[in-house]
Amino acid sequence: MDLLEYQAKEWFREMGIPVLPSQRIDRPSDLKGLKIPYPVVLKSQVRTGGRGRAGGVKFVENTIDAIAAAQTIFHLPILGEFPEVLLAEAKYDAEREFYLAVVLDAAVRRPVLLGSPQGGVDVESSPELLQQVVVEQEFSPFYARRLTLKMGLTGTLIQSVSDIIEKMYQLFVQKDLDLVEINPLGVSSLDEVMALDGKVTVNDRAIARHPDIAVMAEKKANRANSQYPTAMLGSWEEVEPSGNIGILGNGAGLVMATLDLVTDAGSKPATCLNVGHGRNLNTSPLAFCDRLALGLEFLYQSKNIKVVLVNIVGSVPTALEIASVITNFIQRHEDRPPASKTRSHPYPGLIVRLADLELEAAREQLKTVQVPLVENLDEAVEQTVRLAKVNAAKR
C-alpha cells in the first residue's frame, strides 16, 4: 500500500527526519486560514511521481493566487488519478538534491540502502549514479556511512545524511515497509538537509499488524474506483483520444519524459502507463513481469494505438527477463488472429528501449519476434513516431 506524501512526511516528522512546515488542504477555501507564511508550494497528493511535469506542483505568493492554483490542481488528473487533498508547504531553496531509499530486495531477501548524488525526476534517467549497500547483518551506522561515501559525499554531509538514512531504516523496520524513499533530499547552501518529497510503501501482508495502517488501508479501499481494472497495474492516463502511440514505462518521471519527447517529435501519445509498482491491496501483489504483460495487453486492446513504446530503466528484473516477457506476449498473440470476434483491428507495432546489462542477450531474444531493441531513447522515439505514421497510413 502506497502512502500519500503528506502521510509519509507525518511519519518522517515522528522519526526526526527534517521536513518543512506544511498544512493539509482539503478544499481551496482552506487556504484562507493558511498558517504557513508565503511564498508556499501547493502539491497534488496522488500516489505517483512526475507531478511537477504534469502541473501538479505550483508556487504561489498570496492567498488569491493560492486559491486559484488549488482549484486547478484539484481538477488535474496525473496519470489517471485526481487528488482528494493537497499539501501546502513552505518554500525551500535547495542548492543540491540527493536521492535516498531503503527497499526490500526480493532477489537477495535483504533490505538494501540506495542513494544517488542526483535527485528529483532525473534520478530515473541516470541509473549509473545510483549506489547501493545491502544490509547483510544486523543494521549499524556503518551501513549508512558506507552509502554516503559511495555517493561521494564529503564533510558534514556524511554525518547529516547518514543520520537520515539510519532513521529511514528504523521507520522501514518499525512499520514493516517495502520501501521508504526521499526524493529529493534537498541540501541548502549551508549544507542543511531537508526531505522535500517522500514515498512510503507498506508491505500488504503487514497491514493487519498495525491498527493505524489498517485504518488507512480501509479508507483507501473504500475510495478505490473499481471500474478501472488497470488499478492493479500501476497508474495510467488517457492523454489524447486522437493519439496513436501507447507509452509503457517503469517510473512516473520516465513516462512523463517519454511523453514529452514523443510530443516534441510531432506525434500524439494516446495512453501512458506506469507499471513501476502496483496499486492493489491484495496479499499477493503482482510481480513486475506480470504487470508488464498486463500493461501490454491493456495497450494492445486500444483500437487507436498504432505503436507501443516500452521504455524501461533498471536492473530488477533484468533486460533479458523483460525481453522474455515481451517475447512470450508476442508469441501468444501470434497464435490468435488479430481480426476476430473480440478484436477487429490489427495489433500495434512495438518498439522497446531498455537501459541495463544483458542488452545483447535481450536483443537476440527480441529478434525472434521481430521486435527492435533500441538503447538510445531519442532514437527509440524517432522509430516509434515513424512507425506510427506508416501504420496509420496502412489502416
Characterise the protein shown here.
The chain has 395 residues and is of the alpha+beta class. The chain has three domains: 21-90, Dna Ligase, domain 1 (2-Layer Sandwich), CATH 3.30.1490.20; 96-208, D-amino Acid Aminotransferase, Chain A, domain 1; 229-394, Succinyl-CoA synthetase domains (Rossmann fold, 3-Layer(aba) Sandwich), CATH 3.40.50.261. The protein contains eleven helices and 16 strands. The chain has helices at residues 5-15, 51-54, 63-74, 141-150, 156-174, 211-223, 252-264, 288-300, 319-334, 359-367, 377-394; strands at 22-25, 40-44, 57-60, 86-90, 96-105, 110-116, 131-134, 177-187, 193-195, 198-202, 235-238, 245-249, 269-274, 307-313, 349-355, 373-374. The strands form three sheets. Strands 5, 6, 7, 8, 9 and 10 form a six-stranded antiparallel beta sheet that branches. A six-stranded mixed beta sheet has the order 11-13-12-14-15-16, sandwiched between helices. Strands 1-4-2-3 form a four-stranded antiparallel beta sheet. β14, α9 (319-334) and β15 (349-355) form a beta-alpha-beta unit. α8 packs parallel to α9 (319-334). The radius of gyration is 22 Å and the shape is globular.
